[in-house]
Amino acid sequence: MFDRRGYPTVSARDGYDAWAATYDGSVLDLMDLRLLARVGCVAWSGVARAADLACGTGRTGAWLRGRGVGSIDGVDIAPGMLALAEARGVHATLREADIRESGLAGGGYGLVVCSLADEHLPELGPLYAEAARLATAGGWFVLVGYHPYFVMDGMPTHYHTATGEAVAIETYVHLLADHVGAARAHGWRLEELHEGVVDDAWVAAKPKWGSKRGRPISFAAVWARA
Ligand SMILES: C[S@@+](CC[C@H](N)C(=O)[O-])C[C@H]1O[C@@H](n2cnc3c(N)ncnc32)[C@H](O)[C@@H]1O
Asked: Which of 11, 55, 80, 217 is the most buried (most CB within 10 A)?
């Protein structure tokens, strides 16, 4: 509906498998890690166990470990991304599974994280339900997302093949109100919300994005068990 690019579109599993080798070189820390650094209410070093949903190549896990999170279990649907996470070595365990049905044991995680994956889900409810199942009483759910306003501007998540062809990965728009509704339905209360915009640092890294200056590109929501 919002896609203005018209690239061929593949599933998340196929797309990230194909993108895996070049993924780390194409995602900017400004997109997600900069927002995680703004989170104030989570005492990262006090978290004994975290679930890293959509762990990808382990970028998020490495950031969390660097902040003192004790032990992290990673889940992802794309074997190619998981192989790179395995090589990075920051997770205690890694498993190939869907983030809506991770297979991890319930009730044991003081922190559940999902970074840059919710836009690939047609519905948010199952993700918030799974995060609620995994979290301890008093646990946190930190979700970093590709900003819906940016997706609505016409650019689905996409990557370039070795021959330079652009390929989109199935992308859905979830308004921030959709997040609040789905989260509240599964016992989460919004504690913090941060939005990242295309600013000077972005344009310095991606000069072609000058025309997008000031637009929100990503967000981080911190949910507490209600
Ligand atoms: C943009 S990457 C983010 C990876 C990592 N969190 C980071 O920030 O670098 C999105 C990841 O979500 C995974 N993914 C997408 N849909 C998924 C699903 N339904 N279940 C499990 N993993 C999924 C992809 O395989 C990919 O590794």
From this structure: 55
Residue 183: give its domain's CATH number.
Answer: 3.40.50.150
Hey, which of 34, 99, 143, 174 would you mutate to test ligand 1's pocket, going by the most ligand atoms within 8 Å of its Cβ? 99
Instruction: For ligand 1, atom 26, name the residue with the nearest CA.
Output: 56
Q: Is residue 217 included in any domain, yes or no? A: no
- Is 57 contained in some domain? yes
Mean pLDDT of 113-137: 98
Tell me how far apart the alpha carbons of residues 118 and 175 are, in angstroms, rounded to a whole number.
11
Q: What's the pLDDT score for residue 7?
A: 87
Give the model's pLDDT for residue 3.
75
pLDDT surpassing 80 at residue 181:
yes
What is the pTM for the complete model shown? 0.97
Query: What are the backbone dihedrals phi and psi of residue 36, each rounded to the nearest 5 degrees, phi first?
Result: -60, -35
Ligand 1 centre from 156 Cα, in Å? 15
Give yes or no for a contact between 179 and 173, defined as CB atoms under 8 angstroms apart: no
What is the span of the domain harbouring residue 19? 9-211
Give strand pairing partners of 193. Answer: 221
